[in-house]
Amino acid sequence: MDYGILSIIPPIITIILAITTGQVVISLFLGIVFCNLILTDWNLLTSLNQSLNGIIDVFSESWATKTLIFVFLIGGVMTLIQVSGGVQGFVDFLTKKKRIIKSRRGTMLLAYFIGIVVFIESSITILLAGTITRDLADKYKVSREKLAYICDSTSAPICGLIPLNGWGATILGVLAAQVAAGVVDINPVTILIKSIPYQVYSYVTILSVLYFIISGNHFGPMKKAEDRAMLDGKVLADDARPVIEKESIHLPIKKGVKPSMWHMILPILVLVIMVPTGLYITGDGDLTKGSGSTALFWAIFAVTTFTGIYYIGKGIMNLKEYMDYFYKGIGGMIPVSSILIFAFAIGNSINALGTGKYLANLLNGASINSAFTGVIVFILAGIMAFATGTSFGTFAIMIPIALQTAVILDGNIYLAVGAAISGGIMGDHCSPISDTTIMSSMATASDHIHHVKTQIPYALLNAGISSIIFIILGYLS
User: Fold this and answer.
1) Which of 141, 58, 78 is nearest to 443 (CA)?
2) Fewest C-beta atoms under 10 Å: which of 120, 302, 360, 451?
3) pLDDT > 70 fraction of the chain, expressed in percent and rounded
């Protein structure tokens, strides 16, 4: 059944409620109920039943369950790294022993550098950048909002530009389906590679983050957050509600343990190495065909096992202490995992409503000058990702539409694909129901809604610049 314009109302209501109330889980649940009210022809009892069942059904999808287990286990590992003195050892190495990081700017550049270099998977990129630099950011009074912005705005763009990861596998799969359907007769890998120069939003975002770090210039809510941190020494606002419990991530170093950066670096190396290894194995020797969720699942189990053997074997803690700290870290992940469960559930409900298809049909039904194909695809993909909270879902819907539209209008197919990818990333950056936005808040222990409010103006500024560039490229093509 086609629900038309009704299909875009639930995500809009959810996003408005989340931003205005600050209660993300409640807003998501109300959004799920509203979706099901429409699906059940406004039957309240039936919609409530379907909503509750929809939340449970999240666990029937293997990728979602693997992601949630990953979140829980990474919480345990983060706590173990903290109490083992790994984070403190790394901070001491950078600030005291080598004096590499001496300022706020140096701290932010470190987070930026990690976000650029670690392109294996957006969640890993965010977690590493946030976990490694969070204590340094507190030391040099960098607001949690600014740190979350840096982590969020380097992860997805760089994963899109260097697609040797789950992102590349997903996009190639969508492109391969279009090639198999006869839409175009070009190798999917060729299309993906030639679309990279046209992923304008990613380039603009990465450069703008660097500019705001180096210049120290800010505007809007982010300026207030940075002024609060620098002038008042408060990295978090008084009304902040971090998505992970403070006591689970700022536990004191275990008594008698000498801080060492290797207590952090070695587990991280295991994590970083295991992700491409998992992609290689699940892709039968081809990284671009591997399963991202499975690779993450294997990686977190590998690093959990490694930390146990390493810390216990080195005498840092015994088995009982290891498990106690591990469970403490898992408990701290309950708030963020709750948000993710409801975010996945509303994504399924929005998909059942056909929100993405409705927005895509608007593009198909429009009479478009081929020069404007890129910018229109970019804007529509951005709206879709914002409303649905998923860049991958947007790619699955918008890349075929972009390709088909470009072929019909004799436009630049590589520009159209690059615009669809750019739009998916842009909308994902703005959406409070996006998993990467939630993970950025988690990794930096930031208030989720504060992160959203401070990042949106920057994402919209970059979107405006990208739109102008897409128009220029459209005419040049």
Assistant:
1) 78
2) 302
3) 94
